Amino acid sequence: MNAVLETIANRYSCRGFSSEPVARKDLETIALAGAQAPSSRGNAPWYLAVVTNREIIDDLRDTAWDLMLRRDKHGQEVIEKRGGDLFYNAQAVIVVATKETRDLTSEDLDAGLLCENICLAAHSLGLATCLCGFSVNAFADFRATDNERLSKLLGFPFGYKMTVSILLGHAAKVSTPHVPDLSKIVYFE
Fold it and tell me: Is the whole-model pTM more than 0.85?
């Protein structure tokens, strides 16, 4: 198997990170790999905030958790069964924000391509990742000013919205990738 296919086959969602920091050089390599993702019409409608500052990571996590406690009982139960830390002790978080493009394609699709590049690049460097959709909660409480506060803190350009975050770090325990459902692939010859 070639190295790219092996990386794809072995990447998994990490739900337990060690406290070992992620090297700045690795973060720069991973962010560059993300930026090299294709996008519709070359728009690259994304913005990355690469966060290793513990206070900011904790702020994002705690703000998202507060809203989850009020509005998403199922999500809360899932996280509590996994140890109770929404970010699983990740030492770095890449926050992805996107700008509405208003063309015939989706900035969410472009962001997905960016995220896949980031996750595969991290795995190829021996790091673990987990896409964290729950982190959007930190920006979604309409009863608070968290969206404005966090967007400003992370330097989001005007017109960009929180899309997803990628938790990143060294795995506390290596896990196995999911088993792909091949029944969802159909060939027409």
Answer: yes
